[in-house]
Design goal:
7 strands
Length: 198
């Protein structure tokens, strides 16, 4: 496959699609980010890739300036794959989602990891500060059309399964790791989430 062959298959983007990329957070980007409760962060160490979900109440990402965002890093599994990637290769990509909105917002840029207590404390929830905050300097910003989310029926409860269609997290981890886990019930997973959310 070549770039030329792909263009023969797909054709060229529309003038609007080609011109929609901007490099500063305008009022529409700010409004989208203000209402976003979930994003996906893509990182790389230059060889391998990682994609991490990030979620918090709406407004958890701060637009610091026309070019920069601040994103708190909440407790997870402490693998810190994305953070280690950023140290090696600071280029990142973000996709923001807003519940009930089919369109998404994409940000490509450069990340740095900040551990200044004064900044981290600004993102406290339940009196707990994140250990670090990411500052993202944007290079490209643009909206994606909503076709993917519409096809997925992501925001349509009537299309959701009536019951959880896959095993619990701990059952999957037990089978993948071949390690003993005391309790694999989904209720136990959810209890652990509640205790370690922030």
């Amino acid at each position: 496959m070549t770039p030329q062959k792909l263009r023969e298959i797909y054709g060229n983007p529309s003038p609007h699609a080609a011109a929609k990329v901007i490099s500063r957070f305008d009022k529409h980007c700010r409004q989208f980010i203000e209402h976003s409760t979930f994003l996906v962060l893509a990182t790389s160490d230059g060889t391998n890739l990682d994609v991490s979900p990030k979620g918090d109440p709406a407004g958890f990402v701060t637009v610091e300036s026309d070019k920069t965002l601040l994103i708190p890093d909440r407790p997870g599994n402490n693998r810190i794959d994305g953070l280690l990637n950023i140290l090696a290769h600071p280029k990142v990509a973000l996709v923001f989602m807003v519940p009930t909105v089919a369109e998404t917002l994409r940000v490509n840029g450069t990340a740095e990891i900040i551990d200044e207590p004064g900044l981290c404390d600004k993102f406290q929830i339940n009196r707990r500060s994140p250990k670090t905050v990411l500052r993202i300097t944007a290079e490209e910003i643009f909206t994606h059309c909503g076709k993917a989310l519409v096809r997925a029926s992501l925001w349509h409860p009537e299309a959701w399964p009536a019951e959880r269609p896959i095993p619990s997290l701990y059952e999957i981890v037990r089978d993948h790791s071949e390690m003993d886990i005391d309790c694999v019930e989904q209720s136990h997973v959810e209890m652990r989430y509640r205790k370690t959310l922030y």
